[in-house]
Amino acid sequence: MEKVPGSPSVGGSCPQKTAEILSSQYGINLFLAGLVLTFAWAVHAVGISKSHLLSYLITLMLIQLLWMLWYLCRSCTQRRLIREKDTHAGARWLKCGITLFAVITLILDSFKIGYYVDFSNCLSAAEGIFPVTHAIHTILQVYFLWCHAKDIIQSFKTLERFGVIHSVFTNLLLWTNGVLTESKHQLNEHKERLITLGFGNITIVLDDHAPQCNCTTTTLCSIFSQGIYYLYPFNIEYHILASTMLYVLWKNIGRKVEHHQQHKTPFKFHGITVGMIFGLIVLISTIAKVVVYLIQIGRSKNKSELALTMFYLHAISVLALMCTAGIVALLIYRLEDRSLDNSKNPARKLDAELLVGTAAGSWLLSWGSILAIICAQAHPKYTWYNLPYSILVIVEKYIQNLFIIESIHRKEEKVNDDIKTLRIVTISRGSTLSLTPAYKEIYNGRAACDDGELPYLLNGTACARENDGAKEAASQANCPAMHSAPEFPFYSRNSVTNNKRRILKNIAAFLFLCNLSLWIPPAFGCRPEYDNGLEEIVFGFEPWIIVVNLAMPFSIFYRMHSAASLFEVNCKT
């Protein structure tokens, strides 16, 4: 084990590179073993029950709990040591987001405990132990991420690699388990609705994993069983966020970082009113659409067709607006001349890869729908709306990915600490007008006063350091006046820059709320890919359902991850 903080980075250490490869292979095999077990339970394999899967997950969580406790105890004993931190990892808004999802996950665990108590006569002990263990695991993991997500581990690196990668794949397996459970519930509801759309030639066989005994309290059982499935989307997002944060921690083990100060970029509502208003309109209309869709779908053929038509028309409108906003933002970027930051940054690299990788899920569904529309012999009226919807899904994600990835790679304007507190005081007809343009615009004046320390404005201005009255008066007396005209070229340029920044912030805010809006429908059961019925006729029921169940989780995660990335873009702009 290495304990020397000054040990070489991963790239220059052969033993550490070997440890990285070994730990990654350990994690992959851990995940694949759990994946096979999950698949065996899903298809009702002989000799495999839900208790076997839950026992495996409980074991993984207990091992992770032991590692986290060891790490926390070791951190407490070394509290006085100066630790290197990755300022780009574990942003505060990301921690707040995962905390919110964790709180709802704890509510889900309490529902599962209540469900187990009501059906305790016919459920295995593992189904009661799992939610208790999961709740403890959730609490400790959130605390761990709040305190140590930014850590760059430089001691016990080999052991820590295995501990962190174990945590990454434990969360991925818990995510997989949540996705599968929620998908099976959605599939059962979908099969029951297909008959109302007239697809009677599809065999309806419910995949039922319900307990084979009566509930002790019928009302409570109904609340628990229904509530669990409405809370699963938050549990799914919690585990995928936790796994990404832990993966960044794993990539940072042994890494050497440049010691430079990162400017804090807090979120501000000022200047984004237009984007927020339009985004909230989309959000409210989306919630209303989901409520109407879930009420109408499956009631009758006419109501189901109207619900699908409403869904497609609303989605087409929102996606068209998002495409327009993204194109405007990219055009503004083309007009600016700012270089990209290509320095090594695991968090930023992971964000970009997740955006493109998870977008592939919805692209797969969209191309499947396009092909089904082209090849189908009969086309109900509502299915034609699926064509522009599918095309816009592909185009919108393409544009949005380009906008987000370029935004997170753009270099921030650096401000010199000696000059960023300047105030520009303009003298005009005996009065003073205080302006505070961006430092870049002041600096581009290529002039200085007071022995080169303070820049001054063209057109008869004086400059002074803020909060220094004596020096301000001296500056006003000594700074030369180049022109007496009232025109301020640099101020005009600064105004244009501020307008561009304001437009970009409004676009980012609008896209942020739109992505949250588009996350809601599939996360809560509004999935036309299931209910459309046309794809199932062309591709076959089972093949298309397999494609949807594989691609939908990535499509749902894409929207939440895009929203998180756009929040960061808004803070950075």
From TrEMBL:
Keywords assigned by UniProt, alphabetized: Cell membrane, Hydrogen ion transport, Ion channel, Ion transport, Membrane, Transmembrane, Transmembrane helix, Transport
Pfam families reported in the protein's UniProt record: Otopetrin
Domain of life, source organism: Eukaryota
Gene Ontology CC terms: plasma membrane
Transmembrane segments: 26-47, 53-72, 93-117, 129-146, 229-250, 271-295, 311-333, 354-379, 503-525, 537-558
Main location: membrane
Location in the cell: Cell membrane
GO molecular function: proton channel activity
Gene Ontology biological process: inner ear morphogenesis
Topology in membrane: Multi-pass membrane protein
Family indicated by similarity: Belongs to the otopetrin family.
PANTHER family found in the cross-reference section: PROTON CHANNEL OTOP, PROTON CHANNEL OTOP1
Name under which the protein is recorded: OTOP1 protein
